[in-house]
Amino acid sequence: MSPLTSSTTSKVYLDTCVLVSASVHGSYKDLDIELEHQFYAKTVPLFEIIRKNVDKRVGIITFTIETQAIAVIANAVASELEEKAENITDPDLRAKLFESHTVFFDQCLAHLQENLSILQREPISQTEKDRWYPEVSTMYNNLQHIAERLDVNQLINANVTRRYRNTIRHEILEQYQKRYKQLLKLKSEPVEESDKIILCEAISLLHIYQQTISPHIRMYLASTDYHFSPSNSEGEITKQIKRRFQIICDWPDQIAKCLKSDGFA
Amino acid sequence: MIHLGIKSVFNYITGMRSDLNRMEAESFVDSSFTTKIDTLDLELTKMKDYWVNQKEVAVGSAFIFYSAMHNAKLVLGKMKQRFQNVDKTGDNPTIACDSLLVLPIISEVYQKTVQAAEEKQRLNPFLPNATLKLISTLRTTAKLVSLLPALNEEVNAIDKKQLKKTAVELDKKFVASNLLNDI
C-alpha cells in the first residue's frame, strides 16, 4: 500500500465488539483488582491514535454501533448477575449483588462515554444502507455455500499422494485448518444480520467520503469478529470484502499499525 | 419525611423545577431545597428496592431498571452535596441551573421504570434498551454539569467484599466469552 497523508485519506469504522472491548475494564486499587475484557489490550493502540488525531475525525461509529455497545455491556453484566441471583432470596444479599454489579456497569459505561467522546458519529440513511444489502448478502451466502462444501480431509486426499498421506496428514491438516479457519468458523457460526448491516454501513460511509472528502480515501473496519477480520491467517471473507467493497477489515491493533503507516502519529 | 405516591412523584418533580427556575431568576439558592431532594431520593430508593426483589421480570431486565434508579440517586446525591455547600463554594445560582438540566431526565427515567413496574410480565421489549439510552444520557449530562460523582466515590459507598467477589467473577466472564453472543 502506498503511504497517504493522514489529514484527508483514512477513516476507521469501529465495530461494536471493538467499542465494547475498549470499554470493559476496571481498576479498584484499594481492592487490588484490575479486570479487563480479553481484547482490551488490542484496542489500546487504536484508541491512542484516534485520541491524538481527534481533530481529523479518524474514528467513526454510527447510531447502530453506539446502541448495540450499551446493550452488549448491560447484557453481559446482567447475565452474570442472573446466574448469581437466581437462587438467592435473602433481600439484603440480593441488594448487595445488584449494587456491586451496577457499580461495575457504571464504570464500563463511563469508559464507553469517554471512548464515544472521541469518535465521530455519522448519520446514514436507511436507503443508503439498503442499497448495499443485496450485494453484501450475496457475498456472505456464496461464502457460506463454499464453507459448507469445504472438506479438509477431501482436500488432503486430493492434493497429497497416497504414499505420504498418512505420515504427514496431521501436519497438513493443521495447515489447511489454519488456512481455511475463517471459512470453517463461518460453517459453524453463520453470519448474523447485524454483521451484514454493519458492513453495509461501512460501505455507505466509504462512498459518502469518496464523494465529500477524497476519491482516494482509505476505509478500515476495525473488528474482533471473524465475520470481518482475519482469524490468524488472512481469510477468504476479509479478502472478498476488500476486493468487492474496498473495505480493509482487521483487528484493532493491526489497524493501528496501518494508520501509522498512513502517516498518523 | 414525606412519602409520595407514584403519580405524585411527577408533580413533585415539576414543583422542584419551578423552585429551581425561581432560584435561577432571583440568583438566590435556597439551601432548604435539600429536603425536597431527600423526599425524591426516598421515592427512588423504594423503586430501586422494588427491582431487587421483583420476581415476575427477568433479572436481566430488572437490573436495567435498578441501575436506572441507582444512577438517578447518584445524581441526586451530588446535587444535595452541592446545595449543602453552596455558601462555601459560591455555587450560586449555578447549582440551580445545573439541576434544571438533569431533573427532566430523572423524571423520564423514573417514568420508564414505573411503566416497567406496571407492565411486569407484559413488559414492552423495547423498554429496557430505551432505559439504557436514558441512563447513558443522564450520566453524560450530569457529568457535563458536575452532577455525577467520581467512580471512586461510588465504589467507596458499597460493600467491598461483595465488590471484590463480583469483580473476580466478571473478570472470568470477560476473558472467557464473546460478549456479543450474550446480546
Write down the CATH topology of one domain in chain A: Rossmann fold
- Low-confidence segments of chain A, given as residue ranges, are none
| Largest sheet descriptor of chain B | none
Would you count the extended β strands of chain A for me?
Answer: 7
The total count of strands of chain B amounts to 0
The radius of gyration of chain A is 21 Å
Physical arrangement of strands within the biggest beta sheet of chain A: 5-4-1-6-7
Gyration radius of chain B, in Å:
18 Å
Shape of chain A: globular
CATH architectural type of one domain in chain A:
3-Layer(aba) Sandwich
Indicate the structural class of chain B: mainly alpha
Structural class of chain A: alpha/beta
Distance between the termini of chain A: 18 Å
| Mean residue pLDDT of chain A | 88
What's the rounded overall pLDDT mean of chain B?
89
Relative helix content of chain A: 55-70%
Oligomer: heterodimer
What's the CATH class label of one domain in chain A?
Alpha Beta
Strand content of chain B: under 5%
Number of discrete domains of chain B: 1
What best-fitting shape of chain B do the alpha-carbon axes yield?
globular
Report on the structure:
The complex is a heterodimer of chains A (265) and B (183). With 265 residues, chain A is α/β, with parallel strands linked by helices. Chain A has a domain at 6-18 and 39-65 and 124-131 and 189-261: Rossmann fold. In chain A, helix 3 runs parallel beside helix 12. In chain A, strands 5-4-1-6-7 form a five-stranded parallel sheet. In chain A, strands 2-3 form a two-stranded antiparallel ribbon. Chain A has helices spanning 6-9, 16-23, 40-52, 63-85, 91-116, 126-149, 152-159, 162-179, 181-188, 193-212, 236-245, 252-261; strands at 10-14, 25-28, 33-36, 59-61, 120-121, 218-222, 247-250. Chain A is globular, with a radius of gyration of 21 Å. Chain B is mainly alpha-helical. Chain B has one domain (6-150). Chain B starts with 5 loop residues before the first helix and ends in a 7-residue tail after the last helix. The interface between A and B is large, with 51 and 50 residues.
